[in-house]
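Checklist before submission:
- one chain only
- standard amino acids only
- sequence pasted in full

Submission:
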Amino acid sequence: MTPLHSDQIVVEEYPASSPSLRLSVVSETWPPEINGVSLTLSRLVQGLCARNHQVQLIRPRQTRVDQALQHDGFEELLMRGMPIPRYPQLKLGLPGKRALIHAWTLRRPDLVHIATEGPLGWSALQAARCLRLPVTSDFRTNFHAYSEHYGVGWLRKPIAAYLRKFHNLTQLTMVPTQALRSDLMAMGFERVQVVARGVDTRLFNPQHRSEALRTTWGAGPYTTVLLAVGRLAAEKNLDMVLRAFEAMRAVRDDVKLVIVGDGPLRESLQQRCPQAVFAGMQAQQALATYYASADLFLFPSTTETFGNVTIEALASGLAVLAFNTAAAADWVQHEGNGWLVPVNDELAYLHTATLLACEPQRIAQAGARARTQVARLDWQQIASEVEAHFLHTLSMR
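Returned file contents:
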């Protein structure tokens, strides 16, 4: 079971037989869009439906022919959206307060849960307040931190002020780590609680290791394969991945780099590092095989609220090298299932990578221990924790 902090709700107080709730979940991203928010939120919704709750998902229409789904315990309400600049495959929900007031007047939810803070999320918040509906929220993306990486650092304070106003208008904000909770509360956020992210330990599993796939990478039995997974964008600090690869190759030839994902930096990264394998976006089953077939996961980002890829890598039996922040701070045990270095200490990151290149057996030993730490992050347990917070929120009204 996931450890609970002293200020969290005790899950056992609310068994699976809790009363069925009518929940409206609002998100501006959803599968088949591939990103941490859409994938983890969809698993949470599945968990809530499995616990006998009725979920109405409110999201932007992804294509002109997109049709709302409806089946036992789950239905969709599709709203207007527009492509996000530089990410045309993703949609930004447009304001829809009037439509939401109409929908929720006809069929009133017990609670509204908002996963994203865009125009659709703001409209949902305002509509819920007009109807006096209880509202909870997720803090899933450090938009204020990302501003530094896109040349608009001057927007950091206004974005942070908007996020604080948004979340403080809700009855509860859920965050994935204790460190993020502390940071947000220091910024003036109120009523913040920790709920970890889950991981599908059946999908992400060392059993999916494929020597055939490694061969396509040019990796032999003793090759150390480095893996990076995520959006190829400025805020991911991917320069550190290439520098770590170069540092390791300087002391040992038999090292390969595989990068999974796509984004605006792909072309420039390929030009800089033609030796790397750029695999593009991968579906979940294929991604699980990529994780299990590598040896060391490089995660250099310092702007994540969590970093789902970290626990996916650990569940796959993959040792992790990361800065001591977000999910890594909670789930990577230094010199146990991976290595942690101080945040933004690039020299320490490169020094650790260089040492590991000389001792591949240490990487293999850490990989053998990797899965144990996250094996209990089952999605049903996470859904149980979220359910407990929903029920507590309702009991406080």
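Reviewer check: The first strand starts at residue 22 and ends at 26.
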